[in-house]
Amino acid sequence: MACQDHASYSECGTACPLTCDNYDSPTVCTRECAVGCFCNKGYVLENATSNRCIPRSDCKKSCGSNSSYQACGTDCPLTCDNYDNPLQMCTEQCVVGCFCDEGYVFESATCKRCMPQSDCKNTCKGNSNYTDCGTACPLTCDNYDNPPLVCSKQCVPGCSCNKGFVLESAASKCCIPLSECKKACPENAQYTDCGTACPLTCDNYDNPPLVCSKECVQGCFCKEGFVFENAVSKRCIPQSECKKACGLHSRYTNCGTACPLTCDNYDNPPQVCTYQCVAGCFCEEGYVFKSATSKRCIPPTVCKRACPDHSKYTECGSACPLSCDNYENPLRACTDQCVPGCFCEEGYVLEKDGSSRCVKQSSCKTRCSANSHYQQCGTACPKTCADVTNPVPRPCTLQCSAGCFCDVGYVLENAASTFCVKESLCKSCEANSHYSTCAAACPLNCRNYRHPPQICPLICLEGCICNKGHVFKSGQSGPCVPVSDCSDITED
């Protein structure tokens, strides 16, 4: 597939590509694979409706009131929630974007409106007021002219937008005037309150979805004769230009057959077929369509779905199947995607990583993780980091337990973990905390435990984490205190 300058094709790109409008403030995004062209590193889309990739430095640097553009801003800007207690730990890096002028702070981590620090003391932020009985379905820029037909009838206490104002988005706490809601459509598109849930694209216009939910979707839709370039792009192009948008192992032709080969008929082609030219994407030589309704081209050898013993074919298997090497300790991080193929039946796992042979879990030779070994007669109460930091004797049954046990000098991370860590690392944690090899990137503290961060990278970090029922007093490290002790800290 041919891509624009500074872009490359990917089978698993992000569903929320960065643009000049959001690259310095990414939004919440679904963990799904999007197929298409994506900007190379250091480049972003010119805007949400464009497919042109430009250097981040070329983005227009216009900022809102009480803010200015900075080429090297902080990764931890001050907000109404933290200006009187700035984060003690912050990555030392330059962040390009708009930052509040001196004396002003962001309204919140998700609302990038700059307001005077003195206004932060108000219970509710600008253009909103507190109510004991607010709606569970507040109006936003996305739904104000088409409110939800179904909404739970309950009182929700909190801040509600003033009359004439709506939330900028469902995830935002920022109230803006109705007039500022963006509803401008790109070229060759027009706004409608009742568009289809399955719009035509270059990938499906000659084979529209047979099943589509019958609902009204408001937004920008292509004018007659135009279709979306792909499922991710909102750029509308003439159908005649779609020849550049064929999938893998397929190419566009103005005169294809009306009876293309598929997995169902490639070994017994149709004897009768209408003699006509069909324009569209057709499989390259050596490939056939997966089915009559699918436009995915695959080798005929893949069509045969005969699977080895104790396995069966599925269209949506895991990208990280269980094997004798990992079934006792499955991968913590695995891409959330559908992988077609043969997968082991319940109770069976792959003989080893990369193998196609399925064996019973019980027949797997026990494999232990790093810094541990197998024992037929180990203790029923293995030592953990909690025992190191708080060496209080505890009762334990005198019995043999078969399994993996930590090597000398190592202990379990915690009672529920199978990871062994050095005892010396446990001792470095303060009271009411313990060492972990997979700590959260955004730990809870007295200032955010009621409203945890909505955006946080899904990664494992090594370090000390608070015990259950405790949070950091402030920031991302330091002493851990019971949640009940946070009242004096969180109240202003």
From TrEMBL:
Pfam families, A to Z: TIL
MF (Gene Ontology): peptidase inhibitor activity
Keyword match Coiled coil: no
The keyword Disulfide bond is annotated on this UniProt entry: yes
Keywords per UniProt: Disulfide bond, Protease inhibitor
CDD domains: TIL (cd19941)
PANTHER family, sorted: ACCESSORY GLAND PROTEIN ACP62F-RELATED, RIDDLE
Name of this protein: TIL domain-containing protein
